Structure formats: structure tokens, C-alpha cells
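Input (structure):
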């Protein structure tokens, strides 16, 4: 697609009066860590029952047990599968890589009819979608959607990139911290993560690293794989002055530094012209910077499900392999538990022999039925029945019934889609456009668009399904009017059919190129009316010519024709 200019990070030292800023950054993260504590604990329980590998309980370097089994709480995988379906369903329904899911538009309807504006918006849309497809943007979204459904928050970072124009990063829950602005929008992002010595040097440059990292690079070998914790902070720039050169003229600033390093330095510091991160939230409450999720709703049922699965397995185990009692004389004697095996017992006075200590006969039918009910509640919490609705139907249904069911279920997801589009997708589109535009990868704006902002219109499957709900009203109205027109044709004067067609096409996200602009439609109608008038005039003239011919051939006597008599060009002969 092209290349972008990479900002080379540099270390900021005492000469830049950086000590105060470094202290601010350390204290900022410490304060955000306190605010996050209750969410951090909640996330741990969610991860244990749904997705253990997307959570960091403690961000510490050089952990040797990262690859160990982590799903010890999960016995029944229903919650895991339902969360996977939720993520895949949102990916396919909102931002499918296989189809166009957004297009750029402007609010000015008069400008929107301009052919130059249409062509520019279409070309910019195509280039933005190409950049997304050729980078890791869609891979990032596939990670983000399950995070959003489980933890309620799923921040991502979009950086400029030499090779792919943009590069996206997904911090794990437990790594990041969020804070709100006065508008209750997330405007501050921080995180703690681990990098090896080699990664630190590659990312920030050896000359910008601490002596510890520089020594490891010089030593090489195993020292390169040793890890350190890196701190990262992105926040609004308090020193921002519009139009100023350098970082002072950037609305956002970013800082990286090595945790616990005694030196008053940063690995890098730079500014951004727009916020480089997005922090979508599933649902919010009050002043919370972190979101609430359907995974939180499904957690009680998932915990119950795991316990019931354990109890069911214990019941089955005691049925097929019960605890046994045996005569004391059989101690240390061979006993067979295999089918067909024989165990010889003495017939002692107590008559115990060799038999189960007690019989366990659980009613598995009711236990399985209850487990299925709990599984259904978990799937419902995670919208499983929305994304796999048709496959869950036990009988064949009509298309009308399926549409009605889908509309009913989309009501629940509507607010989430609106918030996600505002907090994530709209910011992504503007961020990617800004990066590509600075790199010279976007076509110049038409003169009439100078000073006009564009916005993204979402046409993914879920967005279209929501819009399709509105089309049923138009269809019923058009059917009703059509029935009246047969009886009272003059009511057609009340209806603007052109507007109805444009609205209907917009609701179904029909490609704008497929609908002619209204001005062009008027021109076509004017030409058609002129052609009809000309044809009518020509037909009238032809009739006149044919009539004249007939009159010219009609003999009224005395060698005179009817036409000549009418025109007075022939004299009437005198009577004899």
C-alpha cells in the first residue's frame, strides 16, 4: 500500500526537565492501579471460567510457567464456546473482512450530490478498507471482540507502521489501566507489559535504554532473552498549544519507560495529532472508566455449570467404580475389578465378603436436564441464540418468522452497536485516514469539501439487519397506498415516491452509484417530456398531412377538389 514516516524515539534526560514528568508518570500509573483494583479481581474470576489466556494477574518478568495449563476451573466448555461464537458473530456481523462494512459520508446533503464529492468519498473508503485488510487490523478485531464480550472493555492501539501503514496492538486484561475525561470518555490509557532485552533495544534503540539493557545487548546470548517490565502512558497533553511545533503542538502525548529504573529518563516520548488508542466498552455505569459485560452476567451460571458437571461426574464414577468393603482376611490378597475377573473371598463370620460400601444411583435424567437449562442461560447471556438463531430452530420456519425473531433479538444488541461504533469504529476510521493522509496515501480533497468533516456510515450485516426493521414500515405503507390508488387515483398527489425510493435504498445500504441523483432524474424526465411532446406534435402534423391529402383528392364537382375549395385556389365554374 505504501510507507509512512516513522517517528524515531529518543530518550529524554535531565536537560529536558524530565524528572518532574517521570514522577508524574509513575504516580499516574500508581493512582490508576488503585482505581482498577476491584475490576482486576473481577477479571481474574471471569478469565478462570471463560478465557484464562487473555488475562494477566501479575505483570512480572521472566515467568517460566506461562505455557502451563491454565483452564483448571473449566470442566464444561459451554461458556467458552458461547463466547467464541459471540466474538465470531460480532466480527462477521459488524466488520467482516469479506465484505464492505462501512462507507464515508457527509452531513451536507447538497454537497453529497456532487459527483466529485461522491468519487472522493468512494475512493477514500476503498483505500481505508485496503489498509485495514493489508495490515493486522482484522486480526486485532478478532482478539478484541471476545475481550469486549467477557471483560466489558477492550482497548486497542493503532500506530504508524513502515511496512503496513498501520500496526494494531491488543493489551491483555490485567495489563492496562483506563481513566475518563470530564465527558466520561476514556482519554487516558496506561499499561505494564514485559519485553525481552532484545525487544527493548529493537523498539527504542540501544542508545535510549538503561545501562542494564545496554549491558545485556553487549553480553548477548541468554541475556537477550531476559525480560523487564515496561511502563506505557498515553494522556491528553496538558502543555498543548495549537499550532506550536513539536510535541507541544500535539493534543496527546505518549511515554515509555523501564519500571523501577533509577534514571530520570524515558525510553521514548512523542505526541499525536489524534488519540492513538480506542477503548470501547460494552456497557457503562456512572463514572466508571471500565465497562460491564455479558460475560459478567453469565458468570454465575457458568460457575453453577462447572459444579454440576463435577457432581454428575462424581455420581457416575461412584456408580461404575464404587468404594468397596471386604473381609479383613482379604487384606493384601489379590482382587480383580476387570469384567469377568474372579476374586476369591473367605466366608467369615461377619459375612462381608467383597461388595460395594454403599450403592449410589443418582437420577441422571434430572441432573442432565438441569445442566442443559444452565447451558441455555449461559448461551442466552452471550447472545449465542442471536448469531446461531437459524441453526437452533427445531423446525423449518418461514422467512417472515425468522425476520421477526431476528428483529426481536437485535433490540437487545442495538445500544451496544451504537456505543461500539462511536467509541471504536468511528475513531479507527479517522485515525487511519489521518495516518495515511500524512503519508500522502490519500487523494486530495475536492475544493468544495474544504472545512467539511466526513463520517463513517456502517453497512455491516448487523447494521443492515437493524435498518431492515425500518423498511417493513415503508413496504406496508406502499402496499396500503397502492390499494387506495385503484379506487381513488388522486391520492397519489400526497406521495413523494422519489423520496421513498431514496430512503428505502439508504435503509438497505444500496450502493449510492446505483441510485441516480435527483437533479439527474429531473433532467431525464424533462427530456422524456420534451420527446413525448415532439412525438405528439409530429403525430398531429402527420394527421394534418394525411387529411390534406384526402381533401386534395376529394372531387366536389366541376373539376374542383375539397381542398381547393377550402383554400379558394380554384374558381367555381359558372352555371350553364
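Output (sequence):
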Amino acid at each position: 500500500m505504501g510507507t509512512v514516516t516513522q517517528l524515531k524515539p529518543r530518550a529524554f534526560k535531565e536537560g529536558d526537565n524530565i524528572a518532574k514528568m517521570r514522577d508524574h508518570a509513575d504516580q499516574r500509573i500508581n493512582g490508576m492501579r488503585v482505581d482498577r483494583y476491584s475490576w482486576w479481581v473481577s477479571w481474574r474470576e471471569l478469565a478462570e471460567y471463560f478465557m484464562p489466556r487473555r488475562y494477566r494477574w501479575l505483570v512480572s518478568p521472566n515467568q517460566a510457567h506461562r505455557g502451563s495449563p491454565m483452564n483448571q476451573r473449566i470442566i464444561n466448555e459451554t461458556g467458552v464456546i458461547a463466547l467464541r461464537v459471540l466474538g465470531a458473530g460480532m466480527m462477521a456481523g459488524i466488520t467482516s473482512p469479506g465484505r464492505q462494512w462501512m462507507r464515508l459520508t457527509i452531513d451536507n446533503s447538497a454537497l453529497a450530490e456532487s459527483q466529485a464529492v461522491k468519487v472522493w468519498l468512494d475512493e477514500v473508503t476503498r483505500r481505508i478498507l485496503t489498509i485495514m485488510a493489508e495490515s493486522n487490523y482484522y486480526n486485532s478485531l478478532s482478539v478484541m471482540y471476545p475481550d469486549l464480550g467477557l471483560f466489558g472493555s477492550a482497548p486497542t492501539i493503532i500506530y504508524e507502521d513502515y511496512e503496513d501503514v498501520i500496526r494494531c496492538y491488543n493489551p491483555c486484561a490485567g495489563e492496562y489501566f483506563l481513566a475518563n475525561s470530564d465527558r466520561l470518555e476514556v482519554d487516558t490509557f496506561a499499561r505494564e507489559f514485559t519485553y525481552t532485552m532484545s525487544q527493548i533495544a529493537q523498539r527504542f534503540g540501544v542508545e535510549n535504554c538503561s545501562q542494564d539493557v545496554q549491558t545485556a545487548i553487549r553480553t548477548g546470548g541468554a541475556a537477550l532473552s531476559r525480560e523487564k517490565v515496561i511502563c506505557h502512558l498515553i494522556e491528553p497533553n496538558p502543555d498543548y498549544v495549537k499550532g506550536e511545533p513539536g510535541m507541544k503542538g500535539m493534543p496527546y502525548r505518549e511515554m515509555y519507560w523501564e519500571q523501577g529504573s533509577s534514571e530520570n529518563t524515558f525510553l521514548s516520548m512523542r505526541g499525536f495529532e489524534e488519540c492513538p488508542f480506542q477503548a470501547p466498552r460494552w456497557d457503562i455505569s456512572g463514572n466508571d472508566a471500565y465497562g460491564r459485560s455479558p460475560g459478567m452476567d453469565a458468570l454465575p451460571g457458568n460457575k453453577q455449570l462447572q459444579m454440576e458437571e463435577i457432581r454428575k461426574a462424581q455420581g457416575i464414577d461412584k456408580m461404575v467404580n464404587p468404594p468397596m468393603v471386604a473381609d479383613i482376611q482379604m487384606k493384601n490378597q489379590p482382587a480383580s475389578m476387570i469384567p469377568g475377573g474372579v476374586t476369591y473371598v473367605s466366608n467369615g463370620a461377619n459375612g462381608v465378603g467383597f461388595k460395594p460400601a454403599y450403592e449410589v444411583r443418582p437420577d441422571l435424567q434430572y441432573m442432565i436436564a438441569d445442566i442443559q437449562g444452565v447451558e441455555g442461560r449461559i448461551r442466552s447471556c452471550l447472545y449465542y441464540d442471536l448469531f446461531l438463531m437459524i441453526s437452533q430452530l427445531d423446525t423449518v420456519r418461514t422467512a417472515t418468522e425468522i425476520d421477526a425473531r431476528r428483529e426481536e433479538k437485535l433490540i437487545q444488541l442495538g445500544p451496544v452497536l451504537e456505543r461500539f461504533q462511536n467509541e471504536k469504529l468511528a475513531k479507527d476510521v479517522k485515525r487511519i485516514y489521518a495516518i495515511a493522509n500524512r503519508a500522502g496515501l490519500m487523494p486530495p480533497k475536492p475544493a468544495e469539501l474544504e472545512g467539511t468533516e466526513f463520517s463513517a456510515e456502517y453497512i455491516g450485516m448487523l447494521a443492515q439487519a437493524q435498518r431492515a426493521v425500518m423498511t417493513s414500515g415503508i413496504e406496508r405503507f406502499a402496499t396500503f397506498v397502492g390499494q387506495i390508488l385503484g379506487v381513488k387515483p388522486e391520492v397519489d398527489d400526497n406521495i413523494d415516491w422519489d423520496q421513498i425510493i431514496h430512503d428505502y435504498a439508504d435503509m438497505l445500504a444500496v450502493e449510492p452509484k446505483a441510485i441516480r441523483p435527483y437533479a439527474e432524474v429531473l433532467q431525464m424526465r424533462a427530456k422524456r417530456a420534451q420527446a413525448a411532446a415532439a412525438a405528439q406534435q409530429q403525430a398531429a402534423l402527420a394527421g394534418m398531412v394525411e387529411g390534406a391529402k384526402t381533401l386534395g383528392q376529394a372531387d366536389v364537382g366541376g373539376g374542383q377538389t375539397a381542398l381547393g375549395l377550402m383554400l379558394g385556389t380554384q374558381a367555381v365554374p359558372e352555371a350553364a
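Notes: DSSP finds 16 helices and 14 strands in the chain. Residues 399-438 form the longest helix (40 residues).
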